[in-house]
Every structure is written in structure tokens, then in C-alpha cells.
Amino acid sequence: MRKEDCFYLGKVVSKYSFKGEVLIKLDTDNPEIYENMESVFVSLGNNLVPFFIHRCRLHKSNLLRIDFEDVKDESAADKIIGSELYLPLTMLPPLEGNKFYFHEVIGFTLMDKVYGDIGIIKGINDNASQELFEVEKDGKELLIPISDDFIKKVDRKNRIIHIETPEGLVDLYLN
């Protein structure tokens, strides 16, 4: 399995018990839908390795407590601490309306109410406190906040996101 065919589910953040159980910090708004998984892909080096799950359950808010079939002691658990977990893109539940997955909108056009076509989404910057569309227009990069207040319509069929940015934001980049 290739990372390009998967989505990031979360990261192994700590051991839970001396029997090899680990805690996963999930990157999702709906952790409960991952409570009964049978397997995940664990990123080890440059490879995604399938790990089968004996038992998993929610632990507090967005943590998942997992007992992997082949991780049965603290030493084995130590080897996967910090590893990222992935699932195939086909396991993502479909979203409707103005909700979208970040990977889904790469290549979409951002259409502003005032400025019209302000560029193509090349990526999403989610490293700051505010997620940003990374948009390219005529060789310039625009950073547009991803905000429910700005997003007016997600048109999946035509691959366009209609937005209404605050006055002056687009001017910072295009003028």
C-alpha cells in the first residue's frame, strides 16, 4: 500500500500497559467511527506495514487504545511509539455540503465573490493554528484561511470552491 492511497489516521503517542497496548492520538472529528477496526497501516521507515488489531476502544476524548495482535510487550510497543497510522482512502466516509477532506480539494479552483478565479489549490497548510488553502495564481502564492465564514459552496462536480474573502485579503497578494 502506498501513502498516496491512504489517509493519515493518527499517531502512536504512548504505551498504555505492560502488555503492549498503545494509545493513538486520532486526527478526526469523529473518533467513534474508528473504534472497531480490524487493521491499520503503520508507517515504519519508508514502508506502510499492516498491523492487525486484537481489540481497540476509545480512551478519553480523541485517543484510541489499541491492542495489536503482534505487539505483546513493552519492548514491542516501544518500537512503534511515534509511528503514524494510515487507512486506505476508500474507508473515508463521504462528506456532503461544504465539508471536505483536505486531500480531496487539491486541484480545485478557488472562486471569490469579488475577484472571481483567484487560483488553483496546490496544498493545505495545517501546521499553524489556522488551516490555510495554498493557492497559486499566475506564479504567485496566496494563503487563504479555511473558514466556514468564507466558504459559501463546495462544487465537487466542477471542482470549484466558492468563497467570500474579507475586503483586502486577496489584494495583499494580487496587487
From TrEMBL:
<comment type="similarity">
    <text>Belongs to the RimM family.</text>
</comment>
<dbReference type="GO" id="GO:0043022">
    <property type="term" value="F:ribosome binding"/>
</dbReference>
<dbReference type="InterPro" id="IPR009000">
    <property type="entry name" value="Transl_B-barrel_sf"/>
</dbReference>
<keyword id="KW-0698">rRNA processing</keyword>
<keyword id="KW-0963">Cytoplasm</keyword>
<dbReference type="InterPro" id="IPR011961">
    <property type="entry name" value="RimM"/>
</dbReference>
<dbReference type="InterPro" id="IPR002676">
    <property type="entry name" value="RimM_N"/>
</dbReference>
<dbReference type="GO" id="GO:0042274">
    <property type="term" value="P:ribosomal small subunit biogenesis"/>
</dbReference>
<feature type="domain" description="RimM N-terminal">
    <location>
        <begin position="9"/>
        <end position="88"/>
    </location>
</feature>
<dbReference type="Pfam" id="PF01782">
    <property type="entry name" value="RimM"/>
</dbReference>
<feature type="domain" description="Ribosome maturation factor RimM PRC barrel">
    <location>
        <begin position="103"/>
        <end position="169"/>
    </location>
</feature>
<comment type="subunit">
    <text>Binds ribosomal protein uS19.</text>
</comment>
<keyword id="KW-0690">Ribosome biogenesis</keyword>
<dbReference type="GO" id="GO:0006364">
    <property type="term" value="P:rRNA processing"/>
</dbReference>
<dbReference type="InterPro" id="IPR056792">
    <property type="entry name" value="PRC_RimM"/>
</dbReference>
<comment type="function">
    <text>An accessory protein needed during the final step in the assembly of 30S ribosomal subunit, possibly for assembly of the head region. Essential for efficient processing of 16S rRNA. May be needed both before and after RbfA during the maturation of 16S rRNA. It has affinity for free ribosomal 30S subunits but not for 70S ribosomes.</text>
</comment>
<keyword id="KW-0143">Chaperone</keyword>
<dbReference type="InterPro" id="IPR011033">
    <property type="entry name" value="PRC_barrel-like_sf"/>
</dbReference>
<protein>
    <recommendedName>
        <fullName>Ribosome maturation factor RimM</fullName>
    </recommendedName>
</protein>
<dbReference type="GO" id="GO:0005737">
    <property type="term" value="C:cytoplasm"/>
</dbReference>
<dbReference type="GO" id="GO:0005840">
    <property type="term" value="C:ribosome"/>
</dbReference>
<dbReference type="InterPro" id="IPR036976">
    <property type="entry name" value="RimM_N_sf"/>
</dbReference>
<dbReference type="Pfam" id="PF24986">
    <property type="entry name" value="PRC_RimM"/>
</dbReference>
